[in-house]
Design goal:
Blueprint: E1 3-9, H1 16-37, E2 42-45, H2 52-64, E3 68-75, H3 82-89, E4 95-99, H4 113-118, H5 121-134, E5 140-143, H6 149-169, E6 172-176, H7 190-197, E7 200-204, H8 206-213, H9 218-231, E8 233-234, H10 239-259, E9 263-265, H11 280-286, E10 291-293, H12 298-310, E11 318-327, E12 334-338, E13 353-356, E14 368-371, E15 377-386, E16 391-401, E17 414-419, H13 423-433, E18 438-442, H14 447-457, E19 460-464, H15 470-476
Parallel strand pairs: 1-2, 1-3, 3-4, 4-5, 6-7, 6-9, 8-13, 9-10, 16-19
Antiparallel strand pairs: 11-12, 11-18, 12-17, 13-14, 15-16, 15-18, 16-17
Helix pairs in contact: 2-3, 6-12, 6-14, 8-10, 9-10, 10-11, 13-15
The structure holds manganese (II) ion.
């Protein structure tokens, strides 16, 4: 199980009695955290930091433990922060600064100097906050009494984000073929992607996949077909075309497993040796948490896998989508988002149907795909773009809605949403910010999750929502002043 270390700061100025009380309080708090968060993470207490040596030992342990996804720190007493410098230099895991106290209420009738020295987070956490700021260490601050529900909820949120960052640091991304010819926003600096997010992005020839495909047995295809028919309605009579997609998915399963890959990108411009564009195969794989980006979009592929990992255990859908077309009826503007084929099955509000229909692009045989209407509810749309000297994440609040009318002639899955604060401001902000036409939509995650991810990975974040104003637009519109 994932592990979250808890490190408490103090010093030896107040005597052994004080330090044993610190250790006892920290152990009680750890037990409380485990009672609240035990289903998703094990909280483990490390020795109290009383000098530079204990700090180095603790934070080395945090950094070197593969099961550890992050660390939570708190200053029970004053803990002079120069003691933390060398330890923090060793830290390579997401950091939560919990600004709390062992006691909720101030004991007005009995408080004396000993009590005040023992419980001085107001003092110690400010000293500690300074050194984190001074050392430019990315971290999340959560403030409040540790037993309060909103504090536990924020720690739980940190655990989800830290789990996703830990996953990100180990993520391998395969690109079958290169970026789509001439397309700008899907491209990016793969070296910087690895330095910042850990993504090992590597190229594979589509022929590498075709080689595996040619070894797939009829029995393996039968098993995959059983999976499809158990989950989806077979609308087509062209079973051979569906079996072709089943073969692709079996081959992809093997390729991903053999190479430890968690996300991949392909491009319809490089399908040499494939009869169809992988549609159904990609849709079904995305439903299992595998990241996917079309047209060589490695960033969206990786980001979708990371955000699916962040959303694990939560209600709602998370996956890749492409901005396609609008209904611009004044005051009721809606967006229809979809893709050529590869819409994640996680967005299905209705039981998906497998159909085989022509695809007006790519010059291949009619591909099998899943068709369904999308989920409804509050959500976010998240994209990552490469600004040349840094990555930028743009996160827009959206409302996913039921499509107002059936679209019987649209042969792909789709979702529809409303922009915030309204169409004009929301979409203009996205355009000014340089937001891509590929993104990850989620009804499970919120802006706060993405803000925490951006903060902890040192990524620029632009948010769009009900609090976005015309004045914000003017600021976004002048790049040199950002
Ligand atoms: Mn696209």
């Amino acid at each position: 199980m994932d592990k979250l270390y808890f490190v408490v700061g103090s010093q030896d100025l107040y005597g052994d009695e004080c330090l044993s009380q610190v250790a006892k309080d920290a152990a009680d708090m750890t037990a409380f955290f485990n009672s609240k968060l035990g289903s998703k993470v094990r909280v483990e207490l490390l020795p109290t930091v009383v000098n530079s040596e204990t700090c180095i030992a603790d934070l080395r342990r945090v950094s070197c433990d593969d099961e550890c996804i992050g660390v939570m720190t708190w200053m029970h007493t004053f803990s002079p922060a120069k003691m933390w410098i060398k330890g923090l230099q060793e830290l390579r895991k997401p950091l939560l600064h919990l600004h709390t106290q062992a006691n909720e209420k101030l004991p007005y009738d009995t408080i004396d100097m000993d009590f005040m020295n023992l419980n001085q987070a107001a003092h110690g956490d400010r000293e500690y906050g300074f050194i984190l700021a001074r050392m430019r260490i990315p971290h999340q601050v959560v403030a409040g009494f540790y037993q309060h529900d909103n504090v536990i909820a924020q720690i739980s949120q940190f655990v989800d984000v830290a789990r996703a960052i830990n996953f990100s640091k180990h993520l391998k991304v395969a690109s079958f073929g290169n970026n789509m010819r001439e397309v700008a926003v899907t491209d990016g600096d793969r070296v910087e992607s690895q330095i910042r997010y850990g993504w090992e992005c590597n190229y594979f020839a589509i022929g590498d996949l075709v080689k595996i495909m040619n070894t797939v047995t009829e029995a393996e295809i039968d098993a995959k077909m059983d999976e499809y028919t158990s989950k989806y309605t077979m609308k087509t009579t062209n079973v051979a075309a569906v079996r072709e997609q089943a073969k692709y998915e079996v081959a992809l399963d093997k390729f991903l497993a053999e190479n430890g890959i968690g996300a991949f990108a392909d491009t319809f411009q490089d399908l040499y040796g494939l009869k169809q564009l992988p549609g159904l195969a990609c849709q079904n794989l995305m439903g299992k948490g595998i990241g996917f980006g079309p047209e060589g979009d490695y960033k969206t592929s990786a980001l979708s896998a990371v955000l699916m990992k962040m959303a694990e255990g939560r209600e709602g859908a998370t996956g890749f989508i492409e901005d396609y077309t609008y209904d611009l009826t004044a005051g009721q503007e809606l967006e229809l988002a979809s893709h050529m084929l590869e819409v994640p099955v996680t967005f299905a509000a209705t039981k998906p149907e497998i159909d085989v229909l022509p695809l007006g692009i790519g010059g291949k045989e009619d591909p099998a795909r899943l068709i369904f209407d999308g989920v409804e509810g509050d959500g976010i749309q998240v994209t990552m773009v490469d600004m040349g000297d840094h990555f930028r994440i743009i996160c827009a609040d959206i409302e996913l809605v039921k499509q107002p009318k059936p679209m019987p002639k649209l042969p792909v899955a789709r979702i529809m949403y409303r922009h915030k604060p309204n169409f004009a401001v929301g979409t203009a902000a996205w355009c000014y910010a340089g937001g891509a036409h590929h993104s990850v939509v989620s009804t499970a995650l919120t802006r706060k999750d993405i803000a925490m991810f951006a903060k902890l990975t040192g990524t620029e974040l632009i948010v769009i929502g009900d609090d976005t104003t015309e004045a914000d637009l003017e600021k976004l519109a002048v790049p040199c002043c950002r």
